[in-house]
Amino acid sequence: MAAEGDDDEGAPGPSVNVDGRSDVVETVQSTPAKGSSNSFVHGRLLPVEIDWRDRYERLKLQGYVLRPRFRPGWQPSWVETGTSRYLAEDFLSHKTRNTIDATRVKDNSIVVIKRIPSGDTSSEFRIGSFFTTLDTPRDPRNHCVPILDSFEIEGEDSIYVVMPLFREFDDPPFYSIKEVIDFVQQTLEGTKFMHDHRVAHRDLSTYNIMMDGGPLYPNGFHPSHQNRTVSGTELLKGRRRRLHSSPVFYYLIDFGLSTKYDGDEPYEAIGIDGQDRDAPELQRLATGPYDPFLLDIFTLGNVYKKSLLDNYTNLEFLRPLVERMTQRTPKDRPTISEVIAMFEPIYAARNRPSFRRRLHPPDERRFERNVLDIIASLRDTKYMTSYFFTYWFRVLTFRRPWKT
């Protein structure tokens, strides 16, 4: 996903693929000259978009409406009005083959629809459904993406799975050390929840960890180009992460390679599919079966290394944990329970002042870092002072001391 402000002068950026795989088709769209008789060419659909357009009416019958761009007979609105194409929502293309956003008619919420070949239902759909229906109410340790709905379309060898709209876990970037600790805790908790139910993810890598962006963007964001507003006509001016923003919830997605085991150990898997090519088990020269649960430990530890340790200089306290998780020899890696035991003292101290500090990117100069640290400290002090007085004012006036 594009970072906030990176929009190439409003041209469509990368779209969201809930399964984390890259499936991009390039195109060129330009504003037609006045009087052009071939105006549709300048707003043509991509091949993957035509595929979804042809399913527009059948998805609508299921209660899901695609964006105006995918309506049968669509004509570019900017051609008809003569306005800039960059101010038209239907100029924003969609580039993923197996997923698309839609509006759910019954509550007007934006969701993501994923098309899964029926042959894959023994893994992705079965395991996703298992975690969705496992507990009522939902166990807070369950970080597996919930399936909101599923249906089939007559004549197709596919099943359509409906899920919430999420963002990449580091978009916007982390701001404070405490936010990183919360992220690590939730992802470890979610992994343990899976492993406790004998499910190995087997592709637990960067693009398969997402977050609910609602707390950071209460006014929403465009589902396909998430650096834009819901209308698609402006760059997003939502919140960046701050220490005092509402907490976010992280989710593990895409169970296409996952395996659910019955019975007791040993648990074994074969195959080299997966995003993380650093994992020794998934390298081309790897031979023989491997423990898929220890593969999850490596790939999750590699997420922490590449997305956290390599991007911020004041997270060194996580390095011993990450080094244990990413041992090249699988038997030298800890189990998920052992990882959580190692992490528990860090999580217990998450509210201490040193963990409330802002994160330090490696390219910051010392003077810049000191100035930004002072500003962050003043903001934190201002918030805590305001919270303290608000809390006791509500207590003394016989109101609930928490905000409603």
UniProtKB/TrEMBL annotation:
InterPro entries: Kinase-like_dom_sf (IPR011009), Prot_kinase_dom (IPR000719). Residues 1-10 have a biased composition (Acidic residues). Pfam families: Pkinase. It comes from Schizopora paradoxa. This is Protein kinase domain-containing protein. One of its GO terms (biological process) is mitotic DNA damage checkpoint signaling. Residues 1-22 are annotated as: Disordered. SUPFAM superfamilies: Protein kinase-like (PK-like). GO terms for cellular component: cytoplasm; nucleus. Residues 86-388 form the Protein kinase domain. One of its GO terms (molecular function) is ATP binding.
